[in-house]
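Worked example

This section walks through a single chain of length 312. The input is the sequence exactly as stored; nothing has been trimmed or padded.
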Amino acid sequence: MSTTTTLLGPAEIRELAERAGVRPTKQLGQNFVLDGGTVRKIVRQADVEPGDRVVEVGPGLGSLTLGLLEAGADVVAVEIDPTLARLLPTTVARHVPGLTVVAGADDEPVVLRDDAGRNRLTIVLADALDVHALPGPPPVALVANLPYNVSVPVLLTFLERFDSLERVLVMVQAEVADRLAAPPGSRTYGVPSAKAAWYASARRTATVGRSVFWPAPNVDSALVRFDRREPPATDATREAVFAVVDAAFAQRRKMLRSALSALAGSADAAVAALDAAGVDPQARGERIDIAGFARIAEHLGPVGGRPGIVEA
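Given that input, the structure is written out below as tokens.
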């Protein structure tokens, strides 16, 4: 019997899906990774080390889950599909020698434990956007092939709720990757870029072709790496800063003095806040970095019930 972890191949992935009656759905944005080389590239670029606590969103049939376990990580997998969540323990136990399935109660996650009593895989059946806490030690990394339709909300939600996350490596639609990693002034810079920059520095690390997925999507994918950093030094709340970001990009190419007038209460108040923040009122949101948005939020203060300055 093999004592090493084995990854899923294309034939087995299709066989697993057929046996379980699983058909990938556009509604859930499911595209399963067929290629073991791509799985190992994701794990490698995430700098996963033995003993790391890693959260994976949308494990699907288990391709990336097995790659993370192979690297020695302890994985918390959040899966929204009950059928896939039920299938995953059996698949992993077959591919990772020495793991035992410990069935949880109805309201508890299923755990796969090794011979030393270490929980190597914990499966949480939930919508990732509804997850506010995870079982076990806090995760240090998020590594996932994110469904295209919820990739940005899931990413920002986990960065907000789990400040233990030191790094993130996600595979997303290539266009989304460009937006997430875009610097101020670039054509693709916008709300996702600015909000992600509050939490972390971002860079696109690789392009992933369509042929490594089943079913093959209509677009290319890409890997984006995020490394946690401190948010801008500011007295404004994150909510206040994000409200400024949303207003600035509500109508692209609009000058900030106009874009922020409703938020500030008037165009004059917007101009005064922008001047105080050292930002040209005729500038557009596409030119402002997250530190600039934070300065603007400070000088706008609480407006219309919106949180503004943090009370000391």
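What to look for: Residues 100 and 113 are 5 Å apart (CA to CA).
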